[in-house]
Design goal:
The chain has helices spanning 11-19, 23-45, 48-64, 75-94, 100-107, 122-125, 128-140, 144-155, 160-167, 171-200. It is an all-alpha fold and 201 residues long.
Length: 201
């Protein structure tokens, strides 16, 4: 076994190695960040092959532009910004005539009347795997801007400030998007639970 196989991750050392052009540093970068960045890319573009392309472009850009990284934020935050921008570019190429802001504004009509139908114990209402699939589908159907806010904040665990920095918006705007995303998810899952319970009666 390699003696340094379990060495602790050192972000500063990695950045320094990348700036020196150390090829092994790029491998370390991929190894450490690929799973999380792929998760964001896949949830954004929705297709594994395109998510792989987005991920590859992200790491190529990161290794080529590492000198532009000033260290004002964490390396991971910088990488999230790159993968998010690359993913949005893929979506715009796929649907060049639909501005993302228009998609968001047209899709965030929340109907509070549905929220009261949320079951007391969601896990007992349906099979856990089925519930997870329904949740993933609901996330995938969110407008891109809301989906990104939810994925970065609630799934990837970035702080409000970090998620806002990735998306290039204010923390307040991030909170608004996150609130809308959570409401939409709850509404859509409430519809799902209503259907499930209605069909089981």
């Amino acid at each position: 076994m390699c003696a340094n196989a379990h060495r602790p991750f050192d972000e500063d050392a990695l950045v320094s190695a990348l700036r020196r052009g150390d090829r092994r540093a790029c491998d370390d970068l991929v190894r450490h960040y690929a799973p999380k960045l792929y998760n964001v890319a896949l949830r954004l573009v929705g297709r594994p092959d395109e998510a792989e392309d987005v991920l590859q472009e992200t790491f190529i850009a990161a290794c080529e532009k590492i000198k532009d990284f000033k260290g004002h934020s964490r390396l991971g935050t910088w990488l999230y910004r790159i993968v998010t921008n690359n993913g949005l570019m893929y979506l715009r190429r796929r649907r060049p005539t639909v501005p993302l802001d228009e998609v968001e504004e047209a899709s965030v009509n929340v109907h509070p009347r549905l929220l009261q139908k949320w079951p007391d114990d969601p896990a007992s209402a349906v099979d856990v795997a089925e519930l997870r699939a329904a949740m993933e589908q609901a996330i995938a159907e969110l407008p891109e801007t809301l989906r990104l806010a939810f994925v970065l904040r609630d799934i990837e665990g970035l702080s409000t400030r970090e998620a806002a920095e990735v998306l290039g918006i204010s923390p307040t705007a991030l909170k608004v998007r996150l609130h809308r995303a959570r409401l939409l998810l709850r509404e859509r899952l409430a519809e799902y639970f209503t259907t499930v319970r209605g069909g089981s009666q």
